[in-house]
Amino acid sequence: MTAKERSRPREAPRVRDMPAPRKSESAAGGAAQRIFAWPYRGVLAFLLWTGVRPWQLTLLALAMNIVCGVLILSGAWIAAGIALILGGVSDVMDGSVARHRGEARRSGAFLDSVLDRVSDMILFSCLYWRLADTGQDVAAVLALVTLVVSLGVSHVRAEAEAVNVVLTEGLFQRLERVLALTIGLMIPGMMLPVLILLAVLGTATALQRAFLAVRGA
Question: Would the CA dihedral through 120, 30, 161, 113 be positive or negative?
Fold first, then answer.
């Protein structure tokens, strides 16, 4: 690249030229694809203009989930919900930026998957701690159940892929968990119903994936 090219202002990508979000094979996947198509394109165009790298977004997602966990422990649930939204956006956009730049690698997908599991452990462990500490024993147990179930859903997929069975289906995946937990954090009195939903539908998803994995093996 010449000095003249380096000094030239970076041209922002056009939002209308950005690809639509990929549809997720989950309960909220289709609706999210339609509702957030244009915001998604706008955020993607901005990130490409800034030159941010996919791995930086992956680490930012982890950092925001850590911040969310700390805020949950302190009882600042609305602020925790905002941090969770920012972490979720970063988590969605890292793969999108990688694909658009032609930088999608198995190593990046592996890092993203591992840190997603770490984020789940941080969030639901902090939630369990806070709920147990404030005497909300039923909700605390449900938070622990949700943590185990969410890890189980991911583990079933990993084991299926180890025997060459590709699993993308799942009624309640990470997108739904993040959306539901955001509602629980930001709307007073909604945490217990949200945790019941997460525990029940998460268990159903783990069983669904196990059935599909056995059938496809």
Answer: negative
Distances (CA, A) of 85 to 107, 114, 213: 25, 19, 31
Predicted confidence (pLDDT) per residue in 168-187, tens digit: 666 777 788 888 999 999 99
Crossing angle for the helix pair 191-216 and 174-186, nearest 10 degrees?
170
Give the Cα separation of 122 and 13 in Å (integer). Answer: 35
Q: Amino acid identity, residue 120?
A: D
The closest of 183, 180, 163, 161 to 172, measured between CA atoms, is 180
Q: How far apart are CA 92 and CA 70, in angstroms?
A: 22
Task: Please state, as a whole number, how many other Cβ atoms lie within 10 Å of the Cβ of residue 21.
Answer: 20
What pLDDT is stored for residue 66 in this prediction? 96
**CB-CB contact of 61 with 90 (8 Å):** yes
pTM of the model: 0.83
Average pLDDT per consecutive 10 residues, the chain (217 residues; last block may be shorter): 48 60 57 66 83 90 96 96 93 85 80 90 95 95 93 82 72 82 94 94 86 76
Long-range contacts of 16-22 (CB under 8 A, 24+ apart): 16/41, 17/45, 18/42, 18/44, 18/45, 18/100, 19/44, 19/96, 19/100, 21/92, 21/96
